[in-house]
Amino acid sequence: MEILSILTGAFVAGCDLGIKKYTEENVRDGEERRIWKGKGIYRKVHNKGLMMNHLDSRPKLVKGMSAAALGILFFWEQLLWKEPGRKLAKLGTSLMLGGAVGNTYDRFKRGYVVDYLSLKTKNRKLSDITFNLSDLALFAGAVLTVWSSLFGKKK
């Protein structure tokens, strides 16, 4: 299970960082490309803060919070590896760890996180939200971890 956890996190971070590199090199500022039969938008957005640019005026705080979250997730995953079972929690934590690596790397390397995906909806505010694969992994991992805590088998 440990190797699967490592590979899951590495896969998420590697794919996300590769897409971010491609996006930085091949998508112009303000350019939008329709994807998923018009249901999605591929664009380049630089996010200097947390989700939806919260705390963008405090880059040192954002970097510190990201590094702390990454450390906590890494520590938590180490504890989980020592427990039998809890596969859903382990998968969720691995997804979150991979997402945290992808976004934290960006914050320290570029000074911002590259976001590139959006959903096309009738609600303009929802359509304006741009995210990346690391964000999706963080969200999915959190859902799996909470689900596991609430409904998983207790040993």
TrEMBL record:
<dbReference type="InterPro" id="IPR001872">
    <property type="entry name" value="Peptidase_A8"/>
</dbReference>
<keyword id="KW-0064">Aspartyl protease</keyword>
<keyword id="KW-0378">Hydrolase</keyword>
<keyword id="KW-0812">Transmembrane</keyword>
<dbReference type="GO" id="GO:0004190">
    <property type="term" value="F:aspartic-type endopeptidase activity"/>
</dbReference>
<keyword id="KW-1003">Cell membrane</keyword>
<keyword id="KW-0449">Lipoprotein</keyword>
<keyword id="KW-0645">Protease</keyword>
<keyword id="KW-0472">Membrane</keyword>
<dbReference type="GO" id="GO:0006508">
    <property type="term" value="P:proteolysis"/>
</dbReference>
<dbReference type="GO" id="GO:0016020">
    <property type="term" value="C:membrane"/>
</dbReference>
<feature type="transmembrane region" description="Helical">
    <location>
        <begin position="129"/>
        <end position="151"/>
    </location>
</feature>
<dbReference type="Pfam" id="PF01252">
    <property type="entry name" value="Peptidase_A8"/>
</dbReference>
<protein>
    <submittedName>
        <fullName>Lipoprotein signal peptidase</fullName>
        <ecNumber>3.4.23.36</ecNumber>
    </submittedName>
</protein>
<comment type="similarity">
    <text>Belongs to the peptidase A8 family.</text>
</comment>
<keyword id="KW-1133">Transmembrane helix</keyword>
